[in-house]
Amino acid sequence: DQQVKQNSPSLSVQEGRISILNCDYTNSMFDYFLWYKKYPAEGPTFLISISSIKDKNEDGRFTVFLNKSAKHLSLHIVPSQPGDSAVYFCAARYRGSNYKLTFGKGTLLTVNP
Amino acid sequence: NAGVTQTPKFQVLKTGQSMTLQCAQDMNHNSMYWYRQDPGMGLRLIYYSASEGTTDKGEVPNGYNVSRLNKREFSLRLESAAPSQTSVYFCASGPRGGTLNEQFFGPGTRLTVL
Question: Is B102 part of the contact surface with chain A (CB cutoff 8 Å)?
Answer without folding.
Answer: yes
